[in-house]
Amino acid sequence: MGCSSSLPDRSSGQLSGLNNTENSGVPDAKNLRVKLVLLGDSGVGKSCIVLRFVRGKFDPTSKVTIGASFLSQTIALQDSTTVKFEIWDTAGQERYAALAPLYYRGAGVAVIVYDITSPESFTKAQYWVKELQKHGSPDIVMALVGNKADLHENREVPVQDGIDYAEKNGMFFIETSAKTADNINQLFEEIAKRLPRPS
Amino acid sequence: MENADVFLGLQDFLERMRQPSAADFVKSIKSFIVSFSNHAPDPERDSASVQAFFANMEAAFRAHPLWAGCSEEELDSAGEGLEKYVMTKLFTRVFASLPDDVKQDEQLSEKMSLVQQFVRPENLDIKPTFQNETSWLLAQKELQKINMYKAPRDKLVCILNCCKVINNLLLNASIASNENPPGADEFLPVLIYVTIKANPPQLYSNLLYIQRYRRQSRLVAEAAYFFTNMLSAESFISNIDAKALSMEETEFEKNMEFAQALLSGLSTDLDGLSSQIDQIDGHDPREPTNESRHQTRKEDHTIQPKSSERKLSSKEDKSINKIPSISELENRGATMLLKEDQTSKVFQEYPHMFAHAGDLTINDVEDLLNNYKQLVFKYVCLLKGSGGGSATFPLSGSQVQAQQHVESVKESEDNRVIEQKVGLQNDTDRVDDGPHRISNQENIESNFPKGVAVAPSEDNHDDTFEK
């Protein structure tokens, strides 16, 4: 339901991960690359947010073919820097929670998603924040995202709760709707601005 | 090309290495390989020194006239060629070479062989929409190919191909049912399920090996993501308990016991196959055949089954009694093969089993075609046979053997010499290695002398570079 979506062209050829000649260039201050990990309960719309973000301006040169749980997208900022996001989705079911460290190791950004109609998913989001504060890399940029903002008549998590929690933990906060694309680009642009620049 | 297949640029790399101006490269590669055998294995240090060597060599390629004006792709391919060449030489030395690794592999494999008997898609949170066990067989097959290759890249490709098959199936299912496109919530559970069912050989060692010896600068982005998924599948499986599968403790233990009983029944029952063929042959199943005697014995093993257990175990017996389908036979055979001490022997009469496309010559075509025809014929016979036809299996088996014999006489001198050499290597293998080493590939792929024997077979090295 949440994100009706056509996927990026998957017939475009070979597995991309194997020969990353594009990687051979040393990252510079103008062209950042960052690993972004998505955490949150299953069903909150993690992958929909990413698909929305990637679909809006699909980059035909990106050779993603294996699936939608890994996607990459480059955005250009106003100061003429570009940021390439490599987005790692994680399985949100409780039984897989212990595997998360394998995924967020080395991540520069963590986006923690909950569903504004589900208080349980908000509790789960807080669990991930604590987990990352304990075990994540110390300079990781964290964003808290309340998704499914279009379902406001079913809202069970007040906006203010999200704002307060994020502020207390030094995170960026935003409510999005993957369905209507509301705030999706803003989310990633805001993250890009907050990334530490190599000096 | 549909698949990113096995790396084919090795010939090209060797070609370049035969140029006079590459003499220094050849020298450093050889001395690196030799230096490796001069110290005791130490995974951390070995991995670091291989990675550093690759990095240095790649930088040197980039600066060398041999690659002047070459594209990034060609340089990349040279790096791949180096990785494949060096790691094929070092394979026996660094792959599953510590007793601990062998033990881990065995434990993991045993766990999978038990859990695969009773795990169900819903135990892993796979939604009904995405449950499609027959299509998953395709993904399992990709994973099971992992020991056909020695180069880290080629092994990694098996994993990526498996992931790709799963993703395509999930995507199609989501389109058909109008669900959201699949993300990690859908993907990881299926990957775990497929892995358990596939029980790929030496999974633990294969993952460690890729992690250590795949050039780090190439294990990035999408490949890194899907490799991480495989690592997490392995981690999940080795820690599987009742909670991980949302089962009651007692239910889980019961399931594990039954799986154990079922498996030990199958593996002590090597002649079960022949008795089953007897059944196909038209024996009265009530006749006291070997098999039913085995079953009696198996029941004796079970220590006083409770009433509920008894119900289940009689169900299992029924499943053993029924005529096995081809795929059941195939699965069982594969399990036996994995357990066999000298797997390589079994494949010795099939000379191309572990060849790469680049190794073949035009002269091989006739052989291959003949073998192919026999294979098809044999398979069709089997298929008919299992459908209740006549039991031609043992007969056609011996026919094939006889024909194979005639053909091997026809084979070129070279091949026969190689086969003899292989035979010799096998003998030494048995002395050197533990009984559970499955090293069929290097025994047959005799172009590459074994890593252990690097120093004494220097001449052979020269052959590959400087012919």
Automatic annotation (TrEMBL), chain A:
Transmembrane segments: none annotated. InterPro entries: P-loop_NTPase, Small_GTP-bd, Small_GTPase. The keyword Nucleotide-binding applies. Signal peptide: none annotated. The keyword Chaperone does not apply. Keywords: Nucleotide-binding. One of its GO terms (molecular function) is GTP binding. Pfam families: Ras. Residues 1-22 are annotated as: Disordered. SMART domains: RAB (SM00175), RAS (SM00173), RHO (SM00174). This is Ras-related protein RABF1-like. It comes from Durio zibethinus. The gene is LOC111297218.
UniProtKB/TrEMBL annotation, chain B:
It comes from the Eukaryota. Residues 274-326 are annotated as: Disordered. One of its GO terms (molecular function) is GTP binding. It holds the Pfam family DUF5601. Residues 280-320 have a biased composition (Basic and acidic residues). Keywords: GTP-binding, GTPase activation, Nucleotide-binding. The keyword Metal-binding does not apply. PROSITE patterns: VPS9. Residues 102-246 form the VPS9 domain. This is Vacuolar protein sorting-associated protein 9A.
